[in-house]
Amino acid sequence: MPAPTATSIIEIKNWRAEYFGNADVAAGPVVIRDDSAVDFNWGSGVPMPGLPADNFSVRWSRSLAFDEGLYRLHILMDDGARLWLDDQLVIDSWKDGSLREVTADRQLAGGNHSLRLEYYERSGDAAIRLWWERIATNSYPDWKGEYWSNGSFAGSPVLVRNDSVVNFFWYSQPPAPGVAADNFSARWSRQVNFDSGLYRFYAEADDGIRLYIDGYPIINEWHGSNNSVYTADVTVSGSRQVVVEYYEHSGDAYVRVRWERVTLQPTAQPTRTPTQTPTLTQTPTIAPSSTLIAASTATPTQTPTSTPTGTLTPTLSPTASSTSTGTATPTVTPTGTSTLIPTDTPTDTPTVTPTLTLTPTDTPTVTPTLTLTPTDTPTVTPTATITPTGTPTITFPLTNVRLNELLPVTGTIYLDEWIELYNTGVVSTSLTGWSLDNGPLSGNLPYVITSTVDISPGGFILLNRQETGLTIADAGGQLRLLQPDSTVVDVVTFGPLPPDTSYSRDDTSLWRSDWPPSPGGPNTAPTPTATPTTGP
Questions:
Q1: How far apart are CA 203 and CA 215, in angstroms?
Q2: What φ, ψ does residue 465 adopt, rounded to 5°?
Q3: What is the pLDDT of residue 293?
Q4: Distance between CA atoms of residues 221 and 201, nearest Å
Q5: Where are the domains of the chain?
Q6: What DSSP string describes 295-327?
Q7: What pLDDT does 397 receive?
Q8: Dihedral over alpha carbons 363, 364, 369, 374 (to 10 degrees)
Q9: How far apart are CA 101 and CA 230, in angstroms?
């Protein structure tokens, strides 16, 4: 019996069906006909007389009107099939296999859309079915998980499902049947409503991972790794799309994503603890066995008592502590007679002020002179260690311009918020086209420097809110400096600060909230206030 030939003229009202006598959809169709639906279970039989029971293929195509919405497309197949939607491959399972179902979700605009389905039967039973339904956008109440059996998201996912969390340790096993154990990739997406604030995002992976918020990559670690942990601090509010991309190359497979809200406290102000002011009292006792001249160079000490017997050589025990030394050399004239003549009854005990440690000498006449080392400056002991806040893991380009100081909350001294930039280099840098913003998800418009502005070597530029229109959040947040190509040059995350308090950078790039504001000038540590030493 001769094989049937394709009909050249046929009215197609439903699916245009082209049947081929090979498994490759090649060499021209044997039969072309109108199929009302793609829903066949031929078992081990032939699809029609003149075609083989094995090693045949079919192509169905048509255009259909869809309402706008999200649709889930299903294919039930034995052996292989692939589906195009508007000439885009959305399902690709072109391989031998037993009866199985593969799905894909696609958002469609209202109007006509073209569909093309190709199918082949290798051997054994033959079955093919195509259908779809419109689904609600919340059909994935948690994470929409899409899985590919390649490491680059090529083609359509082999599996789409709802995942309650992104927290998997598959070891050396595949994520699910039909997905490769190695060299696979996955994408999770969901809409998350954030209360306004600063959040710390954690991404853990073996191997590569990327984390996006509204399409902006806050973590990008697309490389092989061994259970590495990455973090990023981001100010965010409102409903945001969060997307996680992951790939596994070989070995164990692990991925986890989480976040938490960060509450930054103001940096503690150091408390100055002055050195104790010693009470200096010395009472030399004069023995009757010698003549003693009260003359010496003295250093104030804490309450030493010297009792000379014979020739007296008291021990000098200075205890004054200071960070700077002032030297005063007054001339002291003792009260009464310089020469003390002992009798059988010791003389009245004199009190020497300021305190002297007496070194007796045999010289009969000495001009009494002392060198006084006062405690001019208290020792400043901070009660808190200032710890810089965390910043996102971002590799910044090489540049000499940086964020140097900011003042978010005005008060009685500063009537406007301000931001200070500093050029640490030895050449001038043009800032034309550079911009400042409150982070990628703040919702605030950035400030772009549109005028011709150069910052000289070692120079400062002060930008007031009245000029920039950029508000620095009183409750804390983020500030970024960007080049004209939107490359992030510098970023600082800060907490709430009191009025008239700046957040400034020291020479080691540590951010401080305990240094005095210095708009337009170098940042300097506070000068300790000396506590004067008072006598009795």
A1: 16
A2: -60, -35
A3: 31
A4: 14
A5: 15-135, 143-262, 401-512
A6: ------BSS------SS--PPP-B----SS---
A7: 52
A8: 70
A9: 37
Helix (H, G, I), strand (E, B) or coil at 466: helix
pLDDT confidence of residue 263: 72
Q: In the prediction, which pLDDT does 36 show?
A: 95
Cis peptide before 354 (omega within 30 of 0): yes
**Where in 28-85 does DSSP place strands (E)?**
31-35, 39-43, 56-66, 69-78, 80-85
Those residues with Cβ within 8 angstroms of residue 193's Cβ, 6 or more apart along the chain or in another chain: 238, 239, 240
Give the per-residue SS3 of 408-454: CCCCCCCCCCEEEEEECCCCCEECCCCEEECCCCCCCCCEECCCCCE
One-letter amino acid for residue 84 of the chain: W
Strands 143-148 and 159-163: antiparallel
Which is nearest to 235 in space by CA: 489, 510, 475?
A: 475
Residues written for the chain: 536
Give the per-residue pLDDT at 414: 86
Scanning 217-373, the segments in alpha helix (DSSP H) are none
Query: Residues 6 or more apart from 152 whose CB is under 8 A from it?
Result: 185, 247
Q: Find out whether 279 and 301 touch, Cβ atoms under 8 Å.
A: no
Say if residues 245 and 210 touch (Cβ distance below 8 Å). Answer: yes
d(CA 500, CA 517): 8
* Exposed / middle / buried, residue 29 (Cβ in 10 Å: 0-12, 13-18, 19+): buried
Low-confidence ranges of the chain (pLDDT < 50): 1-4, 7, 267, 269, 271, 275, 277-396
Same fold for the pair 15-135 and 143-262: yes
CA distance 147 to 415: 55
Q: What is the pLDDT of residue 475?
A: 81
pLDDT score for 260 = 93
The architecture in CATH of the region 401-512 reads Sandwich (2.60)
Sheet holding 39-43, edge to edge: 39-43, 126-135, 69-78, 100-108
Judge whether 502 and 406 are in contact, CB under 8 Å.
yes
How many C-beta atoms lie closer than 10 Å to residue 440's C-beta?
20
* Nearest alpha carbon to residue 78 among 19, 15, 120, 18: 120
CB atoms within 10 A of CB 86: 14
- Dump the DSSP string for 507-530: TTS-EESSSPP-TTS---PPPPPP
Residues 80/149, Cβ–Cβ less than 8 Å: no
- Its CATH class, for the domain covering 15-135, is mainly beta
Does residue 439 come out as left (phi exceeding 0), alpha (psi in the -120 to 50 range) or beta?
A: left
Residue 34's pLDDT is what? 95
| Amino acid at the residue 133 | E
Tell me the CATH number for domain 143-262. Answer: 2.60.120.260
